[in-house]
Amino acid sequence: MSIENLSSHKSFDGWHKQYRHHAGTLNCPMRFAIYLPPQTAQGEKVPVLYWLSGLTCTDENFMQKAGAHRIAAELGIAIVAPDTSPRGKAVADDEGYDLGQGAGFYVNATQAPWNRHYHMYDYVLQELPQLIEASFPVSDKRAIAGHSMGGHGALVLALRNPERYTSVSAFSPIANPVDCPWGQKAFSAYLGEDTSKWKDYDASLLMRSATAKVPARVDIGEADEFLHEQLKPQALEAAAEASGYPLQLNRHPGYDHSYYFIASFIEQQLRFHALYLEQ
Amino acid sequence: MSIENLSSHKSFDGWHKQYRHHAGTLNCPMRFAIYLPPQTAQGEKVPVLYWLSGLTCTDENFMQKAGAHRIAAELGIAIVAPDTSPRGKAVADDEGYDLGQGAGFYVNATQAPWNRHYHMYDYVLQELPQLIEASFPVSDKRAIAGHSMGGHGALVLALRNPERYTSVSAFSPIANPVDCPWGQKAFSAYLGEDTSKWKDYDASLLMRSATAKVPARVDIGEADEFLHEQLKPQALEAAAEASGYPLQLNRHPGYDHSYYFIASFIEQQLRFHALYLEQ
Questions:
Q1: Is 80 exceeded by the pLDDT of residue A1?
Q2: Among B12, B69, B260, beta carbon nearest to A10
Q3: pLDDT exceeding 70 applies to what percent of chain B?
């Protein structure tokens, strides 16, 4: 488990760093970013929030645009941002922005050619935390969050692995991917045409039958250009109602799908996670 | 003075917007960004901070990466970010990142081919504020700030036009451009080889003889990779000492030239400007 440091920037008295490592799960080299809050400089082991980004993003978008370091530094939380798919010339790809590299959808692909590298579910769930916890001054307390495709990923990972995460949050998640164009295109390619194989990757279907319950917060912009066709938060809301799930879903008038929306409410999401990470 | 709206994003209860207009001073179409804090929605006229970006930047870098909207929203300050040079196929350019498009250095070029478009000094001083004050709910109270090449621009504009600005600040400014490679290359091209023509664009030389004194704050990262060869804050410090200039120069151990540094201290700079803008 060797990792190579690619960059270091002091930020809010802590450090933003990028690393490259060979990801066995994905069968390729991967880059990730970590924000280490100032508390780690005194040897303190801090909890970790995993952030999953959306379509076309890398490890950089959230770290540069969300304004999260300020609050993570105050709260003493590390943030880890993986890339959004396996990468490289040897890795299968597609011309669309919503399939292939930059669009891993946090699933384990079963269909060729995707199944050779596209195992982002296992990577985020197992390999990455194992590497992080072995390499940095962090505890094994984990929260998970994400945006859009990454909001879908965060919800699915937390719903299927409640023992691994203290809390989950999402901005503008693809909340019911089996029933929207982005999800149907990706799941057909990665998981095949048998739609019964899709349900383990659909937050609304999972939440409807959830028994162990990780506290969840979702923020939606009401002016989001993808709200009605792709995101479908009402399906998640109905699922939470059906199973009595502790979901806090906030709708924000005027906000869209951009990082300006994320930046406006990331403080609230981080303070939500801190409630559980610091217990 | 017609302007075309290109984008709108709600951010911290205010609005980030991009516009295009024909800049007479620059003889080409120009894009700029404005952050309008929530107070403007109630018809309040707010003061304006002009932000000048560094080499290779556009109107977007600061707006996306600095985390400034949060504090501007709280303080009730609009922020305007122009591009860093004239742009377009008809505009002279250079292969280097430090000359031509993306590198206007906030001067009025006197040398061909640059003198046809490169009048960023006049654009930022006159044309842009005139357009902003005619088009948006803002007052004529102005502050100015910038990073690197833009820090140089902000200091020069404030030192030469103290009646136009209530306060000035800079991150990592090119503080003595007549005496560093970036400045010498740009000034030779834009202003010619006669170095006596350069002194009106050198913050350290101007501060040494300043009589009217706009309060100034400068933040420097001690791990800045350009500190010793290009930035030379000690020249500015010596000039302030010689003329009794009200310069607050802060050195921050471990911080570099990146936006992570700017994000870490932009709140302090904005609160500094608010002291004077709100008088």
A1: no
A2: B260
A3: 100
